[in-house]
Amino acid sequence: MSGRFIDRVEPLLRLVPTVPKPKVALSMSSRLLWTFLALTAYMVLSITPLYGVNVAQAAPLFNPLIAVIFASQSGTMAELGIGPIIIAGIIMELLAFSDIMNIDMEDPNDQMRFNAFTKLVAVIIAFGEGAIMIAAGQLGVITPSLAFIVWLQLVFGAVIVILLDDMVSKGWGIGSGISLFILISIIRTVFWDTFSPIIPPGQVLPLGVVPAIAVGSYVAAVDHTLAALSSIIYRIGYPSLVGLVATLVLGGLVLYVELMEVSIPMVLTQYGGYKISYPFKVMYVSVLPIIFTAYTVALIYNGLYFLATTYNAHASNALLNAIACVHQISLNGQLTTAPCTSSLLYFLQSTPLQLTPQFVVVHIVLYALLSVVYAYLWVNLAGMGPEDQAKTIAESGWHIPGFRSSTRVIARYLERYINALTLTSGLIAGVVAALGDVMGVFGTGIGLILLVEIVIQYYSLAMQEQLFEMYPMLKRFAGKL
């Protein structure tokens, strides 16, 4: 055990800032207060501009889709959002499940080291990500003298978010900081797209759909023309009526699918053949595959866009034209740079300025295929495959009626279910995310899935806490299971 890597780096892990667990279990009201304070601190970071950065020139983190997932706010202390935490968590989970780190997750000491190591990796990622953003011009033009100061601000904001997540997750708050920050980020985006009274440059109607409908209706009543009102139906680059309807419809569909389960009958022989139904969610792999998909597409798009603007700025190379081509188009009376509709770059956009039927088809197919591929990879790497599930069931003393109580037999039986659920969940996540891009869903399609999942999670936690407060002995019993 002494030769393990995590044991050798333990002295370094002690230097990682952390939040201690509460000495006694806090009441529901106290946890709600700490949750509110953590949320307030994050909101303060998300509205505090970075010194030395022109907020108007700052671009979203990679693209608006990734910005929503990472709860990032452009040009603020929350520019990196929870990105470093999510990336570090994924890396550490893969290392742990693949036994590369040789960690016993049932050992409290190993759990503490694992969590500390995850935070250390998150801080390292924040250092690197902040430097890359500045070097790539993601925050606009920054003078060399201010670059170091901006970099320190990005890292400082990321460390505060890491500690806030640590505080909420260790029992001071409710749920996890990651879920909390994603939830408030998506809700704020949806609320802003629905009710914002701000009129964007070059527009005559407010940004929010509800104020835009009110102004459009007033113009229609005064000028007896429906031009302004009809323009709200679908606005490229801005919230629209189609986006609002799609948000409600897809949100209801995602909620319905999230609550769907496939139950497999099980028997516990040692207690007289007690029967239960072992549930598997239809959204078996949740949103992780589509997060990987969006991240992959965003990285490829940024690379090709750099290639187009740097080496093919005049669209003179025929080969590059088919891969990465940009041109000037008129949008709302202003010239702007956009990918050529005939190039691969065009189909990798999240929200195109020129919507074509080809984009709709290719975008949906691309997201669906990548999401399914990542779903299968994640299931096999993260300990969610048939063998892993069968091992858990067999060790618990359960078996499938009519089959031998063997891990191999149970795995063979579960294989068809898990493979089908992996395909279904990956496909649903990919299609919903792509439709969100095409139809202008508020908060993006991925954000909508996350919103529904987190709301269900917090609802379950609230019901559980209420039950534990009514029956304290039940909490003690659950803690021993």
UniProtKB/TrEMBL annotation:
BP GO terms, sorted: protein transport
Major subcellular site: membrane
InterPro entries, alphabetized: SecY/SEC61-alpha (IPR002208), SecY_CS (IPR030659), SecY_dom_sf (IPR023201)
Regions that span the bilayer: 32-53, 65-95, 116-136, 142-164, 171-192, 204-229, 236-257, 282-307, 319-348, 360-379, 417-435, 441-461
Keywords (A to Z) from UniProt: Membrane, Protein transport, Translocation, Transmembrane, Transmembrane helix, Transport
Localization annotation: Membrane
Domain of life: Archaea
Membrane topology of this protein: Multi-pass membrane protein
GO cellular component: membrane
Gene3D superfamilies: SecY subunit domain
Short name of any one Pfam family annotated for the protein: SecY
Membrane found in the keyword field: yes
Biological role stated in the UniProt entry: The central subunit of the protein translocation channel SecYEG. Consists of two halves formed by TMs 1-5 and 6-10. These two domains form a lateral gate at the front which open onto the bilayer between TMs 2 and 7, and are clamped together by SecE at the back. The channel is closed by both a pore ring composed of hydrophobic SecY resides and a short helix (helix 2A) on the extracellular side of the membrane which forms a plug. The plug probably moves laterally to allow the channel to open. The ring and the pore may move independently.
Family membership: Belongs to the SecY/SEC61-alpha family.
Protein's name according to its UniProt entry: Protein translocase subunit SecY
Organism the protein comes from: Thermocladium modestius
